[in-house]
Design a protein that fits this description.
single chain, mainly alpha, 2 strands
Length: 174
């Protein structure tokens, strides 16, 4: 099935687009005094997300995972919804969105778009995609391993972001 590798390549291309946006936004943030937090976990995050894409392809091929239409199409819809949510987050945060933890001092928290519902809606998209993308073509082991490792990573990442946001809010009040 050629369409599943094409889907994985499309998601990989989307990640490259995210990195282009993030690089531009990093310049914008640092020009305004942002300092990066959590550099130590960033390489693990890149490795985990790269592993998700490679794991999807490798498991389907090596284990000869079948495409089950009911599950596959449902999970494909979840993948599309996750992409929509991710880009809603990116659009809502504008130049403040990044793959790194950068908080511009003095700016109020964004409370519009999906951020009026959740503090970290982008991670809902990451979790949904991490489960759904492998399951589009039955790669349940990749979905399981990514989900467990991602839960550990998100625990660190969300704590880091919350500390950075709290420090910025405390600085704005001072």
């Amino acid at each position: 099935m050629i369409w599943y590798p094409v889907l994985i390549l499309a998601v990989a291309a989307e990640r490259v687009a995210e990195l282009v946006v993030a690089r531009r936004n990093t310049r914008w943030s640092t020009e305004r005094g942002a300092v990066e937090r959590g550099r130590g976990h960033y390489p693990a995050m890149v490795l985990l997300h790269t592993g998700l894409l490679l794991g999807c392809l490798a498991e389907v091929r090596a284990a000869d995972r079948p495409f089950v239409p009911v599950t596959g199409w449902t999970m494909f819809a979840v993948v599309l919804a996750a992409q929509g949510l991710r880009w809603w987050c990116i659009r809502t945060l504008g130049p403040r969105w990044n793959t790194r933890v950068l908080v511009v001092p003095g700016l109020a928290l964004v409370t519009g778009g999906p951020y009026r519902l959740l503090r970290h809606p982008n991670y809902v998209a990451v979790v949904a995609e991490g489960v759904a993308l492998p399951l589009v073509h039955g790669a349940w082991l990749t979905a399981l391993v990514f989900t467990v490792l991602n839960a550990a990573l998100l625990t660190v990442r969300i704590r880091c972001e919350n500390r950075a946001l709290d420090l910025a809010a405390a600085g704005a009040r001072a």
